[in-house]
Structures are given as C-alpha cells and as structure tokens.
Amino acid sequence: MVRLAFGGFLLILGFVGYQVGFQICMSGEGVLTKFLTLFLSPALPLEVLGLVLQFGGGVLAIIGFLLCITALSKPIVRVERVEAAGETSISKLQCKFCGGRLEEDSVFCPLCGKSQV
Ligand SMILES: [Zn+2]
Predict the structure, then answer these.
(1) Under a CB-based contact definition with an 8 Å cutoff, are residues 80 and 74 in contact?
(2) Which of 56, 69, 50 is nearest to 13 (CA)?
(3) 85 C-alpha vs ligand 1 centroid, how far in Å?
(4) How many distinct structural domains can be found in the chain?
(5) Which residue among 18, 46, 97, 113 is the one 20 to 30 A from 71 at the CA level?
(6) CA–CA separation, 62 vs 100, rounded Å?
(7) Is 95 part of any domain?
C-alpha cells in the first residue's frame, strides 16, 4: 500500500509539473511563473524551465503510473500462482483411476498399476 500511495503521489506531482511547464511555455508571463522565479535564479530562461518541468513532469507521471500498476497487479498474480500450484499438486499425487496416492512424478500407480500419462 505504501508503494501505491507513493506511485499516486508521483503521478499527481508529475502531472502538476507538466501542466506548470506547459503553461510557462505557452504564456511566459503569469502569476505562477513570477512565483517560481522568486525561488529560482533569474538567469535561467523561462523556456528552459518550462521544458525541464514538462519533461521531468512527464517522466515522473509515467514512473508513478507504473508504480501504481505494479502495486495493484502483484497480489492478483500471487493468488493465481497459489491456485495453479495447488491444482497441479493434487492431480499429481492422486491416481486418475483408483484415486490412490502416488509418488511424485511416478508414471504408474502403485495400487492399480495403470499408467498416469
Ligand atoms: Zn490407481
């Protein structure tokens, strides 16, 4: 669940960063750009800042999205694996004809002698 929250946070942060970068590239002047230049050096051109924000935001959003997907898909995969392992172990350990117990990977049943292949 920590991974999912972190992924969601990155996704939102990346999306916001992309939007801000896009706005800087399109308009240039704005309340948000003036606010940002208070923290960043004025020597840095706004176009570069906008491009960096767009690119970085896009990458962050993709990473966050992938984190969300992996966090959500992992438990499902684990359940499927357990079910598949349970089925194979049951069918391998029982004779198809008499239901007697079999040794692992045995071709013939020790009780009725019939082939399991
Ligand atoms: Zn048998």
Answers:
(1) no
(2) 56
(3) 22
(4) 1
(5) 18
(6) 54
(7) no
Residue 102 within a domain: no
**Separation of CA 116 and ligand 1 centre (Å):** 8
Q: Give the domain extent around 54.
A: 2-84
Give the dihedral of Cα atoms 91, 95, 100, 102; nearest 10 deg: -70
Which of 61-70, 71-80, 81-90 has the highest average model confidence (pLDDT)? 61-70
C-alpha to C-alpha distance for 2 and 70, rounded to whole angstroms: 12
Would you give the DSSP letter of residue 105?
A: T
Ligand 1: centre distance to CA 28 (Å):
81
Q: Note whether residue 44 is domain-resident.
A: yes
What's the CA-to-centroid distance between 82 and ligand 1, angstroms? 27
Per-residue pLDDT, 19 = 86
**Distance between CA atoms of residues 58 and 106, nearest Å:** 56
CA distance 80 to 86: 10
**pLDDT range class, residue 59, cuts 50, 70, 90:** very high
Q: Give the span between the Cα atoms of 22 and 10, in whole angstroms.
A: 18
